[in-house]
């Protein structure tokens, strides 16, 4: 299946000069969604994985069925103030300013092999913050798996772990 055909591109969203890659058009197609999860699983089939860590919110949509299929636990990484127990946090830089992500302190045991999942890798800021949180918890981060990687933004180069991407689009 050509997954790129299932992605809607919206020009000048959320601001002029940006082309937004909308995955909802893939998600609404049951066959395409299943095949995309299977294809993402194939990218990491040789890795030992104890937990899948999904980055809010689209990383939840892709990471949870992947964790289910692998028979491993799922851990959410969220925006500040969304998790009820004690958290680890990491700050990352945006184009104008910064943001923070959090994960429960007890979500990962020391030495567990984790795979971070998100829908898209652009500049690598959120992904790098997720790696930092997991490593601070004592995890062995085996990589970051994304549905889409944007070329030209050098996000892969900023990631301190291997990156697996199902498809690439120009930034």
Automatic annotation (TrEMBL):
CDD domains: PRTases_typeI
EC number: 2.4.2.7
Reactions catalysed according to its record: AMP + diphosphate = 5-phospho-alpha-D-ribose 1-diphosphate + adenine
Pathways per UniProt: Purine metabolism; AMP biosynthesis via salvage pathway; AMP from adenine: step 1/1
InterPro entries, per the entry: Ade_phspho_trans, PRTase-like, PRTase_dom, UPRTase/APRTase
Main location, first listed in the record: cytoplasm
Molecular functions (GO terms): adenine phosphoribosyltransferase activity
Subcellular location: Cytoplasm
One Pfam family it belongs to: Pribosyltran
Coiled-coil positions: none
Enzyme class: transferase
UniProt keyword annotations, A-Z: Cytoplasm, Glycosyltransferase, Purine salvage, Transferase
Domain of life: Bacteria
UniProt domain Phosphoribosyltransferase: residue ranges: 25-149
Similarity-based family: Belongs to the purine/pyrimidine phosphoribosyltransferase family.
Subunit-level organization: Homodimer.
Physiological role: Catalyzes a salvage reaction resulting in the formation of AMP, that is energically less costly than de novo synthesis.
PANTHER family: ADENINE PHOSPHORIBOSYLTRANSFERASE
Name assigned to this protein: Adenine phosphoribosyltransferase
Native source organism of the sequence: Aedoeadaptatus acetigenes
């Amino acid at each position: 299946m050509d997954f790129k055909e299932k992605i809607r591109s919206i020009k000048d969203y959320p601001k002029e000069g940006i082309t937004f890659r909308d995955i909802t058009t893939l998600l609404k197609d049951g066959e395409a969604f299943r095949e995309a999860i299977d294809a993402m699983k194939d990218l990491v089939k040789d890795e030992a994985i104890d937990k899948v860590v999904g980055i809010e919110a689209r990383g939840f949509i892709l990471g949870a069925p992947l964790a289910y299929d692998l028979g491993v636990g799922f851990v959410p990484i969220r925006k500040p103030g969304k998790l009820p127990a004690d958290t680890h946090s990491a700050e990352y830089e945006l184009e104008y300013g910064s943001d923070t992500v959090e994960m429960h302190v007890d979500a990962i045991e020391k030495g567990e092999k984790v795979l971070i999942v998100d829908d898209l890798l652009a500049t690598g800021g959120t992904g790098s913050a997720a790696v930092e949180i997991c490593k601070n918890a004592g995890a062995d981060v085996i990589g970051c798996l994304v549905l889409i990687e944007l070329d030209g933004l050098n996000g892969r180069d900023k990631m301190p772990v291997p990156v697996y991407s199902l498809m690439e689009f120009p930034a």
